[in-house]
Structures are given as structure tokens and as C-alpha cells.
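Methods: example folding runs. The two proteins below were folded one after another, and each record is reproduced exactly as written to the output file, sequence line first and C-alpha cell line second.
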Amino acid sequence: MAENGGATGAANPRCTFGIVMGKTGGSNTPRHQSHSMIVVPFSTPGVTKVRNLSVFGYNEAPSGHSEMLFENVKVPIENLILGEGKGFEIAQGRLGPGRIHHCMRSIGLAERCLSLLVERGLQRRPFGKRIVEHEVVQHKIAECRIAIDQCRLLTLHAAHMIDRFGSKKARKEISMIKVAAPKMLCSVIDEAIQVYGGAGVSDDFPLAKCYAMARTLRIADGPDEVHLSSIAKMEIKDQILKANL
């Protein structure tokens, strides 16, 4: 039996094992108990690193992602993490804090890109005056500041909910910021690239690579669509309870 999968960080030569999540339950096993996480050393017979994967053309050497091939791989039962059927539980325990961590980094990167936007706008003087003196660019700067601070406050609220009630009770707030922050970051970087012109999409400045990273965050740890569906279901439930329907 052969299975292909993607592994984050596997391209790093120091990476000697992977944590593989796979289906271990039968057809009658409850959905949330059907998967397990298993430690698989890459030296195990049947494990092949097929190729390193680039993201928007960047390979993130020496780290990065790899396509892995598992062919009839066998490891000891002791390599199970926490026990059989605990994969979903482990994943959910990490995903809440992991998602808000992505959002905090997104806000920091957005601040940096807004600074680059203003810096470039102060330097360039097309049509006889600096770019930042054009009203259309001033509006872009204002909208970026509003969007960043909106996401900062929503992130702080989600963090407060986690601290007070735990990740499970803060699922809606975590999903909300996981949708909002990467979208905001993509928008801020896009505006900065526009002010830089052709230089913004070159490797002479960090904006192109920043955008590549930002865009992947709309997929990492659950795509926007999954989070939006979850938010809607929780909101409908909350509204029904509020109205005693």
C-alpha cells in the first residue's frame, strides 16, 4: 500500500522524523475518533522524500515543505501519540492557539508593510510631488491603519476568550480572526506593492515574499470557507438561543 502526503518542515536536513496523521478507525468508529497521530522516523523502510515543494516559487531552504511517499511503512505501536483515535483531539488542542498565533504574526507583518508603504511614498516624487501627498494614497494609508487596528482588537478579544474560557469555548472568535487577519494582511501588502510599482513584485524588496506567505495563511490551519461555515453555524445557534426559538 502506498500513500502520498505533504510534510511541513521535512525539507530541512535536520528533520529526521515526521508526525503522520492517518485514519485508523473502522466504518463504525465515531468520526472524531477515527484518526491517530504516529511518530514515523524518516529512516524507516518505505519512507521516501519524493521532492521539495516550493510556494509561490519560494523553496524556504533549508526548511520548507516536501512531498513524502509511504509504502508499507511499519512502526512500533509505542509510536502512537496519546493513543489510538486521539488524532483529532491532539490536532484541535494545537489548532486554536496555532491559529491565533498566525493572526498575531499577521498583524506584526502588516505593520511592517504599512511602514514600507509610507517610506516609499515619502521617497518617490512622480508628477512633481511625493506619492504620500496624493489623496488617493492617503486614503490607502488610512484604510490600512483602520484594518490593522480592527484585526488587532479582534485578536485581543479572541485571546481574552481563550484565557477566560479556553480554546473550545472561543472557537467562534478564533475562526473570526483567522479569516479576518490574513485577508487584512493580503490587502495591506497589496496596497504597499501598488505604491512600490514594479519594484514591489521584485526580490529587491520583501513585499513579494511577504505576500506569498500571507496568501498561504488563508489556507493554513483551515481555509477561509471552513471557518466561515463554522462561524455561521455558531452564530445561527447563538441567535436561536437568544430569541428562545
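Second run, written to the same file directly after the first:
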Amino acid sequence: MTISADAGAARAPGRPRDPGVAEAIFDAVITLLSEGASIEALSVEAIAAKAGVGKATIYRRWPGKDELILDAIAAMKSKIPVPKGESVRADLLAIMKSSAVSRDVDRDARVIPCVALEMRRNPKFAKLHEQVVEQRREISREVIRRGIATGEIRPDAEVEVVITMLSAPMLVNKLFGPNPRLRSETLAEQVLDIVLDGVAGPRLQR
């Protein structure tokens, strides 16, 4: 999900926008944050200069800095996979792996604290961030509810608690950097199996 100025609005006829420009702008945002800039201090001027574009190019695409930064952060993650419905485990694992994929783990670890700080400082940013992550959460909720219906997850399992238990270890590993005692490439699968063992329904307990 993105929250750019294009969302829900038809574009005027003209030359199609170069997708490489948006990618350069996103890369500029993430690079500046990873180099130590706070979201509060980061300016559109600095982003434009880093990306090699004019400010007008940015304002044609996003209504403000908050929307741009959140789109850049959302672009760090892989596209949310469509659940295949074969099993709760397979669908949740695909969702978790899509969140864990990163082109630069160290850079991600430096960006996440910036986001957390700005969410506490800026209510507007926090609300927009919630909109960005809610789509991924809702897909996870649907998978878990389906698991309850099929007996893969026990009926008294709290959906929001299960989602939190699945996401928190992954976030901590990103926030503080990969734990050398953990295998990051298999962490999602290990966390998922431990959580599912605790909430397994009758279908998985046979």
C-alpha cells in the first residue's frame, strides 16, 4: 500500500512517469535516514538533491514529506503475497518472509529506529504509518481466522496476540541487527513453528 498523491486519482494525459525516478527518490530517503538524519530534520530539499531531481518532481507525486517517507519505507518490503489457502503455515510463512526480505540488512536496522521515534513525536506520521502496515496485518488476520475455522488453530487463540508473537521477534532482529546466534534466513520459519505449536488446533494435533 502506498499513500502517494496518485492514489485514487486519475492522472492527466501526458508522458508516463519514469518508475526509476520514484526508485531514486526512495533510495535517497532511506540512504539519508541510514546516514543519521532524523525524519523530523530531513527536508524535501535534501531528498531532492540526493536523488538528483527537483523539488517539483517530488511534490507532483506526494502531498508532503510524511507521505513520501512512508512510501519509501513501504518500498523496503516485498509485495504482500496473496495467500494460496493450502495451509495456514504456508500462507503465514510467505507473509513473514516477504517482510523479512531486505537488500541491505544493516541499513534497515538504522532506519527502523528513525520510524519509531517519529511515530512517538508526530501523531500524523503515526496515523499514516498505521495505514501502511494495516493491509499486511489484515491479510495475516484473514489467514489466522481461516485457520481457526479449519481447525488448524485452536478457537480460543487471540488473533492480535498471534500476529504480535509472529512479528515481534522479526522486528527485534532488524532493530538491533542480526543476532549472530540466530540464522536470519530461517528465523521466520522457526518463529512460526514455535508459535503454531502453542496455538495448534485439533487438525494439527492429530
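Comment on the second run: The chain has two domains: 20-73, 79-197.
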